[in-house]
Amino acid sequence: MGRWEPGARERLVVAAVDLFTEQGYDATTVAEIAERAGLTRSTFFRHFSDKRELLVAGQETLSRLLADGIAEAPADASPLAAVAEGLAHASSAMGPQNRELGPRIRAAVAASAELQERDALKSVGMAAAMTEALVARGVPDPVAHLAAELGVLAFKRGYAEWSEGDRAPEDDFAGYLRKALDELRAASASLH
Amino acid sequence: MGRWEPGARERLVVAAVDLFTEQGYDATTVAEIAERAGLTRSTFFRHFSDKRELLVAGQETLSRLLADGIAEAPADASPLAAVAEGLAHASSAMGPQNRELGPRIRAAVAASAELQERDALKSVGMAAAMTEALVARGVPDPVAHLAAELGVLAFKRGYAEWSEGDRAPEDDFAGYLRKALDELRAASASLH
């Protein structure tokens, strides 16, 4: 994983998200996405099997990164500390282009019922991946579920903060995720 | 709201869920749903504007019930106590037919990527309705979000338990929801 390399794949994602915003997900064709990205249809198909896969690919990578980070946390880490490791691991793979995509993705999702459903499924997928990774560490089921939901909330809140407005380029995503998880941890003390 | 009255609307929902399981959501037509329910297409359209609305209608009712219960909780109730009131209020509108639908809906969702997306969106809608109702009570944002997510988890776990296997008919849904929320409350103490 490591650094984000600008390239065909990323250009296709940016072009697709912009077209989804402008004209909707359903109305956008693979040919249009390739054209907007200045690439050919065959280049599109070297990276993605179809328009839907373009959205799902990022989500699967993210879920895998979160689960790997949780699996690699120290054996004595608490469930929430393991989730923090998952978030840190995922953030290490996200760079400036992911940050720029944030407002574009939000605009596209706001404009499309179909993308809202895919976005909701993405959250469920992230929660399931983290729950499974926690259960594999021996965390009992309801605790694992709850810690995973906190992780999803922290990811969403941290990503929104990180990608909104004008931020200094040296601001790293990991810091936003830590802050969001700390806020949720503090919030969990005020539930009762 | 109150008691569940068997009738055309419920027969249409049961017929639709069964057909979605057997042949998929996309492949099922309004005419087939009406026929399976022993009703006419025009009766279908007196209850639902289309196939999609049939799924969404229940979700909107549920979200409203959860929000109403939270709004009516005593002023000094903690965020989680208010969520418990929301769950109790929603459960009062769910009877034996909702219980029977549980395994059918799970089978239909397991068989269809499209229904998985709608199911995920339903969870997001429930969480949003509860968050909004909590914020209206003056609960600060991250606490409201977290309490709402606990409510969604409790609803899902309680509903799965209630509608699985052979249960005595006098088992009420409210008890399952209370137990699920209590388990999650206990789990939240083991996160750190």
Describe the model.
The structure is a homodimer of 192-residue chains. With 192 residues, chain A is mostly helical. Chain A contains nine helices and no strands. Chain A has helices at residues 8-23, 30-36, 41-47, 51-71, 79-91, 96-110, 113-136, 141-163, 173-188. The first copy, chain A, is elongated and about 50 Å long. Chain A starts with 7 loop residues before the first helix and ends with a helix. The relative contact order of chain A is 0.13. Mean pLDDT of chain A is 88; it is low at 1-5. The A-B interface holds A 78-81, 116-118, 120-121, 123-124, 140, 142-143, 145-147, 149-150, 153, 157, 183-188, 190-192 and B 78-81, 116-118, 120-121, 123-124, 140, 142-143, 145-147, 149-150, 153, 157, 183-188, 190-192.
Topology:
2 copies of one chain form a homodimer.
Chain A (H helix, E strand, L loop, with lengths): L7 H16 L6 H7 L4 H7 L3 H21 L7 H13 L4 H15 L2 H24 L4 H23 L9 H16 L4
Helix pairs in contact in A: 1-2, 1-6, 4-5, 4-7, 5-8, 5-9, 6-8, 7-8, 8-9
Task: Name the chain pair with the biggest interface and residue counts per chain.
Answer: A-B, 30 and 30 residues
Order of helices and strands of chain A: HHHHHHHHH
- Given as residue ranges, the uncertain stretches of chain A (5+ residues, pLDDT < 50) are 1-5
Question: What is the oligomeric state here?
Answer: homodimer
Helix-residue proportion of chain A: over 70%
Count every beta strand of chain A, where a strand is a DSSP E run of 2 or more residues: 0
Give the percentage of residues in beta strands of chain A.
under 5%
- Give the CA-based shape of chain A: elongated
For the largest beta-sheet of chain A, the strand count, sense and barrel status come to: none
What's the overall average pLDDT of chain A, rounded? 88
Radius of gyration of chain A: 17 Å
Number of continuous helical runs of chain A: 9
Compute the separation of the termini of chain A in Å.
41 Å
| Class by alpha and beta content of chain A | mainly alpha
